[in-house]
Design brief:
Layout lengths: L16 H4 L5 H20 L7 H11 L1 H25 L11 H6 L5 H21 L10 H26 L2 H6 L20 H20 L5 H18 L10 H5 L10 H10 L10 H5 L7 H10 L7 E6 L14 H4 L15 H11 L5 E8 L3 E8 L9 H20 L4 E4 L6 H4 L3 H6 L6 E3 L2 H15 L6 E5 L4 H12 L3 E4 L2 H17 L11 E2 L3 H5 L3 E4 L5 H6 L5 E4 L18 E2 L4 E3 L4 E2 L12 E3 H12 L14 H13 L3 E2 L5
Parallel strand pairs: 1-3, 1-4, 4-5, 6-7, 6-9, 7-8, 9-10, 10-11
Antiparallel strand pairs: 2-3, 2-13, 12-14, 12-15
Helix pairs in contact: 2-3, 4-6, 4-10, 6-9, 7-9, 7-10, 9-10, 12-14, 20-21, 20-25, 20-26, 21-22
């Protein structure tokens, strides 16, 4: 919001919130659907005759408004996703400053301008067509109308916009209106439409000049009207995308006049950093004429063209979880990505199922891609790469070889790029899949890159979590689910600290008991038989155990049988209940997977990592950062290798020293 909001700042439907604001269009949408069904019935029954043709043509124009609005939304999303992909890799990036959650929240109402246009189109189309006396369908192309649209834009629209924009930078109007737009120094495509409602009214009146002119002169066409709106959107998004799209510099050298007719993203980015230059809409010639062109425009453009992809020191390898989790990736829908993923709350994503399955098909033909970039202390470059697979595919035997190839290729690509550490997130470190990454070391024994699964920090967080939440007067925890290297080590440390670990299954108990004894033999610092703290449950100790450590395989039945007030603490990479949230009990407390809040020195965080809160990272992701910061030269990715208490303490102390703090808030 502007520093001193003026009148007509808020959108009329602001009180409806982001979830219900589209209700504004509901009457027209319902009416258009009713009209469409009526037309289909009439067509089927062959009842229409020549007297109905004009009515049908008018109705077809009415029906096309909704698909056109949807196309504008899709256009904006394509630009946002592509821009975030390009800026994460850094090639041709213009401004290096970070984007934070505050900017994403401020720009989350970017679609208000589309609702506004929908209201105007729906409410005025009949009046406009009647006033213009258009009794025949608008043609797809009409040369005189297209030429008139171009000339009117280059003349009145660009000229009036330039001077209106300069007026908005007067301190009176700037503080009340335009400062809201300039709150974003590093722009994203949708930043282009983040303005107070009053500004949008003026912009609409400006852009309506060519549209209404061709309509009232009888020269309108689909290309002249629809194409003009698409052109405005395209150029707006282009100017705010923060990377250079046109990388063929000799085009402007051969045709120098083009740089005064078409602006570049670097040209407009200077307006957001310098404020008093480059006021033009899309044609810099007006800045040239009135002496407001920034003298460094050409230099910044050339600098952006020379920029190459950044080479990160740390790479975190993640993947999609459920089918609709792709919308929660940083490259997905910005407003969804900025909030913790909850598969049960975004019911409206079911209407996007064609796109959802399209992404599923495309994922089958792509390699790992860069999804996010961050910096730590201004010197450590971090990237998150996404393996194009879903969580359920990691459980399919037929997919394991393909997934391992994708992970292996990602590791080799990172090795070639000079990456120091790659951390395996979520199921990329699954024991059944790749033995926590050991298979890659066996296949490529000369790897210089360190592979980290984050198990040491995961253990440290789980143990710390248990110590903080265990009820006073009790020292007992129950372990359920699939036992992993993390589970064995957690049990060892808890037993060593005097806590009783209850295992409810005899086979699991015997396996864990043998594992503990083997670990005791290797851990020379242990002098007592701590396996006595590993017990089978009885009716009494089972009933009083309020802390449950759970992993993969923790069933709904186990959840149902837990006593009221139970604390469920996951030691797995994915919460066991994430796929069936409706069975979560209200009389129990659920905690997130092992994670830590990141220090303020980690920049450019504006998306949530899966289901974790804002500015919280998973243990595996942080462990990779810690390995790089401490310059440790060992791998941590073998399910057969034992984690000692010293290993756990080492990474725990290092993480705290670098500013990370445990995240222990309940879900």
């Amino acid at each position: 919001m502007a520093s001193k909001p003026g009148i007509v700042t808020d959108w009329p439907w602001k009180h409806l919130g982001s979830r219900f604001k589209y209700i504004v269009l509901a009457p027209w949408v319902v009416d258009s659907m009713y009209t469409a069904s009526k037309m289909m019935i009439r067509s089927t029954l062959r009842e229409s005759d020549s007297r109905d043709i004009s009515w049908d043509d008018e109705t077809r124009m009415y029906l096309i408004i909704l698909p056109f609005l949807w196309s504008r939304i899709i256009h904006a999303q394509i630009w946002t996703s592509y821009s975030r992909f390009r800026t994460a890799k850094a090639k041709n990036r213009i401004i290096d400053k970070p984007i934070e959650f505050e900017q994403v929240d401020r720009e989350s109402n970017w679609d208000d301008n589309i609702i506004f246009m929908g209201v105007i189109f729906y409410s005025s189309y009949k009046w406009v067509l009647t006033a213009a006396k258009l009794n025949s369908p608008i043609p797809f192309w009409r040369t005189d109308g297209v030429v008139m649209t171009i000339l009117l834009h280059m003349g009145p629209v660009e000229f009036l916009y330039y001077w209106f924009h300069r007026a908005l930078h007067h301190h009176f109007l700037y503080s009340r209106y335009h400062s809201h737009h300039h709150s974003s120094i590093v722009t994203e495509p949708v930043t282009s439409v983040i303005h107070p409602f009053g500004e949008h009214i003026i912009y609409f009146l400006l852009f309506a000049i060519p549209i209404l002119t061709v309509i009232f002169t009888g020269t309108a066409s689909v290309v002249a009207v629809g194409g003009y709106i698409i052109y405005i959107d395209f150029m707006n998004y282009l100017g705010h995308c923060n990377f250079e799209l046109v990388t063929i510099s000799y085009v402007f050298n051969i045709f120098p006049f083009l740089k005064y007719i078409f602006y570049t993203p670097s040209f407009h980015s200077l307006h957001h950093t310098q404020f008093r230059t480059n006021y033009s809409l899309f044609m810099p010639i007006y800045d040239l004429i009135y002496g407001t062109m920034d003298t460094s425009s050409d230099e910044l453009y050339d600098t952006s063209l020379r920029r190459r992809d950044e080479q990160p020191e740390v790479v975190h390898l993640s993947h999609a979880t459920t089918l609709d989790s792709v919308y929660h990736l940083r490259l997905g829908v910005a407003s969804l990505a900025s909030r913790p993923y909850n598969p049960s709350t975004k019911w409206y994503l079911m209407f996007a199922w064609p796109l959802t399955y399209m992404w599923k098909v495309l994922f089958g033909y792509t390699n790992s891609f860069v999804g996010e970039r961050n910096t730590f202390n201004g010197r450590l470059n971090i990237q998150t790469w996404v393996v194009p697979k879903y969580a359920y595919q990691y459980k399919l035997t037929s997919q394991r070889e393909k997934i391992n190839v994708l992970i292996e290729n990602a590791i080799l690509e990172a090795e070639k790029a000079g990456v120091k550490v790659i951390s395996l997130g979520l199921l990329n470190q699954d024991e059944e899949l790749n033995n926590n990454g050991k298979v890659y070391l066996e296949k490529h024994s000369t790897l210089k890159i360190r592979i980290v699964d984050g198990s040491s920090l995961t253990v440290a967080l789980v143990v710390n979590h248990i110590i903080k939440i265990i009820p006073h007067g009790t020292n007992q925890v129950i372990m359920r689910g699939k036992f992993t290297k993390v589970a064995y080590t957690v049990a060892l440390i808890l037993c060593q600290k005097g806590s009783q670990v209850v295992v409810t299954n005899m086979d699991e108990f015997e396996k864990l008991n043998l594992k503990l004894k083997a670990m005791m033999m290797e851990a020379t610092s242990l002098t007592l038989d701590i396996s006595s703290n590993l017990i089978l449950p009885t009716t009494s100790n089972h009933a009083h155990s309020q802390v449950w450590l759970v992993g993969d395989g923790f069933s709904d039945e186990d959840q149902t049988n837990a006593p009221a007030g139970t604390f469920f603490v996951p030691f797995s990479q994915i919460p066991p209940w994430i796929g069936n949230l409706k069975n979560m009990r209200k009389d129990c407390v659920y905690f997130n997977t092992p994670a830590m809040t990141v220090p303020s020195t980690i920049k450019n965080i504006h998306s949530c990592e899966d289901w974790l809160p804002r500015r919280v990272m998973s243990a595996s992701r942080i462990c990779g950062i810690i390995h790089a910061m401490e310059n440790w030269d060992s791998h941590e990715c073998d399910s057969d290798s034992l984690l000692t208490l010293e290993d756990v303490e080492k990474v725990w102390v290092a993480s705290l020293r670098h500013g990370f703090r445990p995240s222990i808030a309940p879900v």
